[in-house]
User: What shape does this take?
Amino acid sequence: MACMNFSLGGKKMKQRLVWLLALSSCLIIGMSIPAFAASSSGSVELRGIITDVEDNTARANEYVTTREDDGATLSPKMDLKVVDGKSAFDMSADLKSADNFSLEVDFDLNRIFKFGTSLDAFQHWKDKETLEQLGATMQGDIDGDQPRVSTNLTGSLNTAYPSLDEANAQYFEEQSNDYLVTRREWTSEAELHLPELPNIVFHAGQRVETRNGMEQSITLSKCSSCHIEAEGKDIDERTEDLSFGMTGKFGLVTIDYEYLNRKFEDESSIEEYNYLFAGKTRADVVDRTQLLYDGVQEYSNTPDSDKDSHMLKARVDLSSNTVFTGSFVQADIESQKQDVLDEGGDGTPTYQFVGSDTLETEYTGYTGKFATRLGPVRLSASANIYEIEGPEYTLDFPDRDVIDVDPYLNPQTYHSAESREAMELGLDAVYRISMGTTLRLGYDYEEIEREEEELGTTETHSVKAAINSRLAKGLSLRGSYEYQDIEEPFYLEDGTGIAQNYDDGTIQATEAGDGVYVLNTADFTNIDNNTNTVYYWNSVYGSRTMDATNQPDEVHELKGSVNWSPAANMAATISARVRMEENGSVQYEQTSYVPGFSFWYAPNGKMNMTMAYTFNKQETENNMCVGWYHG
Assistant: This one.
């Protein structure tokens, strides 16, 4: 089959067999069922597709729907429907290219057994970062751009005028890569209705998703974002889902249970960066291990994971107007980590786990909703309470024990920033003002209490109002307003503002005009008994006195739309959205304007046309602190 284009060998061979099995299942079912069919119908289309991209392919053709490059493609499409008494069969195929297609088969056997399976594939062009604006201010830059793509030793880079020939060659090689990822997904669902158990439906499902191709992998290569590393990463990811459960209806009560197991495997290439041996000084002594990272280090690795979840949902229809629904979810996720070795040095670990290297995360959630009608008013109340218990793990850094002035603990215990307890409450009321007009009012409260004390607790109060009115035949209006008050949004305390109004009683910042403050680093030489040395972590970190965030503490949002339908085959919509965010504590403001227009017209039953336009404008104002230093 031309559209099945896979490499042989190892894991690739396994994937090839899985996809061929999926395709064969669709074709075998499609050829066998029509043999006993009483009636059938279908259609076949033969299309030609021409692709011609004049701009950046990753931006003009980001999600490939036909072919990834310029040229012409023959694109057949077909569907077949078969009905035989209480049984039915439906098959469709849409082939656009070898890596962009959709196949689907569904059948119902005497209303006892239902089965559906589909195989889809598409390609995604990924953008690339040229790194041209990220060069550090060090001598030896090439036209202001550092080729931070080297994975091997590049000679004596610690000399005054380093030789960057190899790094330069790898830079241009990396920039010439085609970052294209192909995604394939095979899904199947089945239902079993036993006549002996008319109130219960058994269901099961499976899903296999793969991602193959190349993406750009980026990391910090030294001590700050002035030094950026990028490299092409071969992607080979596989996700497998298996689920089963049952749904039962017992009088006023409906119960649904589902178990899900999800396995993720990553066989992608392992990216490495060579931390170049640089002649840095510590206490007037050349110390190559000042950064604690010398030699080859791995980065951009995703660990394999295994997830098990149980979901139980219940619905109680107390009356035709009063309904209660609730759910419970329990999920456990395990991911396997590993010690990281200093491959470029003597083979000792950069860090190693103390105890188990398996990280576990648990999620427990409860939801409930009650809805009823009181005269012309529909009322509903909802609650959602969940808890995330993230992993806690301890790492040992051998290098920390041999550096006398290292300020960090060893071993050191880490708590996941995802660990939290959350509660969401909501009230909603809908009142019918007239035959064609309804008014909706609502209030939501959210509280997120994070286990990491420095991350704090965030509370959000939201008030909403919306109106929906049919002004005349074929003319309708919708409008809404929402206000949010957010207490302690997620922010970094003392994360910026180097030397901004700094005064610890001994050392003071000097104002240099235009909002610029200057610290004399010589003032820090006596900190921590260091008479001749100034460290970044004791002269700069402690001088940051301003909070940093791009999260608002107050939000206003307006939405509106007008729909006009002069005929059953024609409709036009004008819409607009304005969102205003601000956070006075960090002088952050952001305003978004999104007007739009759409028009739909169907001249006949087999043809329809859609035209749409959206304009997006966003204005942002925020304080930014730039540390000006040369190194």
Notes: Helices lie at 10-32, 57-60, 165-175, 536-539. The mean pLDDT is 80.
